[in-house]
């Protein structure tokens, strides 16, 4: 089983804390939250945290195949990917005996070969089986099992509402109500802000900003558009680039292609063909907050991490809904329409009109004020503080 390990015990007043955060690589959101929580433990003085980014995939070969297939659909067909997730919600593989029997031995081996006092899951399908095995091993009261829900809308992925976790952390009252309707005790639910990495709260100095512009070889007096095609790099974002190039000659463009090397090659070929000097193409980046900081307009998918990263950096956005939404992303429509934090692009033919609307200073400032009015708090601090408190370390 592959993992990155920073492991040991922390003793506080005779109490021991040894933490594992288990996750999945379907998309990038689960791992992003996992890493955010691990870093927040460090921020609060706890370095002994093990992170398992491919825990779900490593339990069974079939899990790895399904995860890879999901990621493939993310870059090729949003509609089919949504249907794939919807199928999971209907057949509930997490509750099947076949799934339980398939993962049983690996989970037992994981528990026996480690000495974790606390396990945090940012995944979904494996939670029912894990909790069941803890009970069968008579470890349910010895090891605290926590679930951090990475879907802030309605619906949420199946398995997050698994019964009998020690506590559940969600990003909205909407998800809290889903958990309550699933029969989970209100005393176990904490509706906190969505957990986003602390780098998205960084205070940028003018020197920092000048440095970013210099690295990009961009001018500060020109508007900048960021096209974020997602962690896997969805191909259809290339179709958005060409009309923008044809219409806005002075608009500086950053195109993030995620892990899709072929998409990056196609973007670079377009740049070369059109002889563009105002477009920069990147693969998967770990400094997206810098690119967002110097961007005036951001086009992004409706994934929770991308969405909340924009909100926490107070950046109005254009939400890509051209090909529909993933099953767990559908609730973003209600969210953005209610609080007016940007514009939903549901037809590619409207792209230029939508960008023009975002370039209007009055409209843009209105969106930004609406974001500020949300008074969002980073859920990572609250989640870790509450876990430490629940474990008797605060």
Characteristics:
disordered N terminus; six-stranded parallel β-sheet; 16 helices; 394 residues; alpha/beta; 45% helix
Percentage of helical residues?
A: 40-55%
Order of helices and strands: EEEHEHHHHEHEEHEHEHEHEHEHEHEHHH
Number of helices: 16
Largest sheet features = 6 strands, parallel
The Rg value, from CA coordinates, equals 22 Å
**Low confidence ranges:** 1-14
Distance, first to last CA? 33 Å
Number of strands: 14
Shape: globular
Strand order of the largest sheet: 4-3-5-6-7-8
In words, what does this structure look like?
By secondary structure, the chain is of the alpha/beta class. 45% of the residues lie in helices and 14% in strands. It is built from 16 helices and 14 strands. The chain has helices at residues 29-43, 55-59, 61-76, 78-91, 97-113, 127-136, 173-181, 206-216, 238-247, 261-274, 288-293, 304-312, 332-339, 351-359, 361-373, 379-390, and strands at 10-12, 15-17, 19-22, 49-52, 118-121, 144-148, 167-170, 189-191, 224-228, 252-256, 279-282, 297-300, 317-320, 342-345. The strands form 3 sheets. The chain has a 6-stranded parallel beta sheet, with helices on both faces. Helix 3 packs antiparallel against helix 4. It starts with 9 loop residues before the first strand and ends with a helix.
């Amino acid at each position: 089983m592959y993992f990155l390990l920073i492991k040991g015990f922390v003793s506080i007043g005779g109490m021991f804390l040894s933490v594992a955060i288990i996750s999945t690589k379907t998309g990038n959101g689960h791992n992003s939250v996992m890493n955010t929580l691990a870093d927040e433990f460090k921020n609060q003085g706890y370095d002994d945290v093990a992170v398992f980014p491919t825990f779900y995939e490593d339990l069974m070969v079939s899990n790895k195949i399904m995860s890879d297939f999901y990621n493939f659909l993310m870059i090729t067909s949003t509609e089919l990917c949504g249907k794939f997730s919807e199928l999971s919600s209907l057949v509930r593989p997490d509750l099947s005996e076949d799934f339980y029997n398939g993962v049983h031995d690996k989970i037992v081996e994981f528990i026996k070969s480690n000495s974790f006092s606390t396990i945090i899951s940012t995944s979904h399908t494996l939670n029912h089986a894990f909790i069941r095995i803890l009970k069968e091993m008579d470890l349910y009261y010895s090891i605290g099992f926590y679930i951090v829900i990475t879907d802030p809308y309605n619906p949420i992925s199946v398995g997050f509402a698994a019964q009998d976790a020690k506590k559940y952390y969600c990003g909205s009252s909407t998800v809290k109500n889903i958990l309550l309707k699933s029969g989970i005790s209100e005393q176990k639910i904490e509706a906190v802000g969505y957990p986003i990495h602390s780098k998205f709260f960084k205070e940028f100095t003018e020197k920092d900003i000048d440095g970013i512009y210099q690295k990009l070889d961009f001018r500060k007096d020109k508007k900048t558009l960021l096209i974020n095609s997602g962690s896997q790099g969805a191909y259809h974002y290339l179709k958005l680039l060409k009309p923008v190039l044809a219409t806005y000659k002075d608009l500086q463009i950053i195109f993030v292609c995620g892990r899709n090397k072929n998409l990056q090659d196609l973007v670079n070929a377009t740049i070369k063909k059109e002889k563009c000097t105002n477009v920069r193409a990147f693969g998967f980046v770990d400094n997206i907050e810098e690119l967002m900081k110097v961007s005036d307009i951001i086009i992004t998918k409706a994934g929770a991490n991308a969405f909340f990263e924009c909100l926490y950096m107070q950046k109005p956005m254009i939400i890509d809904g051209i090909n529909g939404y993933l099953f767990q992303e559908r609730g973003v429509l209600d969210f953005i329409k209610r609080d007016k934090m940007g514009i939903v692009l549901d037809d590619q033919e409207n792209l230029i009109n939508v960008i023009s609307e975002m370039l209007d200073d009055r409209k843009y400032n209105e969106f930004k004020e609406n974001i500020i009015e949300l008074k969002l708090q980073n859920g990572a601090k609250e989640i870790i503080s509450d876990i430490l408190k629940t474990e008797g370390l605060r």
